[in-house]
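The aim of this short unit is practical: by the end, you should be able to scan a pair of folded records and say something sensible about each. We start with the first protein, listed as its amino acid sequence and then its C-alpha cells.
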Amino acid sequence: MKFRPAAAVAGAFLAVMLLSGCEGRIREMAQAPGIQMAPETGMPRPQPADRLTESEPLLIGAFDKIDIDVYGVQDLHRAVTVDASGTFLFPLVGEVQAAGRDPRTIVADLTERLRPYVKNPQVSVNVVERVSQALTVDGQVLKPGQYQVIGRQTLMRAVATAGGTSEYARLDDVVIFRTVGGQRYVGLYNLAAIRRGNYEDPEVFANDIVIVGDSKARRMFQDFLAATPVLTAPLILLLTR
C-alpha cells in the first residue's frame, strides 16, 4: 500500500475545493442575461446548412469545382477544378485567381480579360462542388485571417496554419464561436492544456471563428475564464440573444 505525502493530499483537497468554488461561480455567471451553460460537453458539430450562411459571401477555395460558360461560344465552356494554389487555367486568358473570390468577382475578371477576343462577352460562373470553406483565426497569432478548411481540421492545426501563436500569447484563453441550428455557441479552451494532452484537440469547421489570447470578443467572457482554468475540459456556453 502506497501513502501519498501530506502536502500532496492537501494539494489535491485544495484543488477539489477550488474547482467546486469555480463551478458555483460559473453557474451563477451562466444565469446572466444572454448567456447560459450549454448542455453539451463539447462544441456541437455543425450541419451542412450551418456552413453556408447568407451573411457570408460564397468564397471559392482550393479544390472547389466551378462551371464557366461564355454565352454563344461553346468552345469556352469549361468545368474546372481550382488547384492547390487557388487558380485555374482558362482559354485565351491563361491563369485566373479564384481562391478567396466570389463568383461575381471571377465573372468580372473573365469578362474584362475576354473583351479583346470575344465581342461583348457574357460570362457565367457557377460553383458545382465546394470542397473547401474558410474559418477565421484571429487574436495573438502571427498571421490572423481567413483560412480554407480542407478535410479534417483541428484547433491546433488551425493555429499552426495562422503561423502559430505570438511570443506573449495567452494560451489559456482561446475562444471558438460556432453557429449550429441557428444557435450561437462559444467554446472556451486552454491551448497549453491541449498541447499537454489534458483533453482532446477539438475539431473546427468552416465558418468557425477562433480567437487566441486577448481580444474584445474574448473579454465578453472574462469572468468565465477567470472562474475556471479550463485545464481538464473546455467550457461550452450558449448565447441566447
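Turning to the second protein, read its sequence before its C-alpha cells, just as you did above.
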Amino acid sequence: MKKRFIAGAQCPSCSELDVITLVESEQGSHMHCVECGYEENMTDSEPVAKKKKPTEQMIQWVNIDSD
C-alpha cells in the first residue's frame, strides 16, 4: 500500500485544503481526507464512504435594548 498527500487538493466534503491523501493498493486507488474521513474510489465516481464530522455552531446573544 502506498499513501501520499496531494498538495493543493481540496476535500469535496469539508472543503479543507491540503488534507487529501491518495492511497494506492492492490484493490485500486482511492482518495482519503484526513480531516473529515471522506473517501472516494478513484476508479469509480461513487464514494466509498462518506463520514461527516459533526459541525459546531456558535450562538451569541446580543442585547439590542439600550436601558
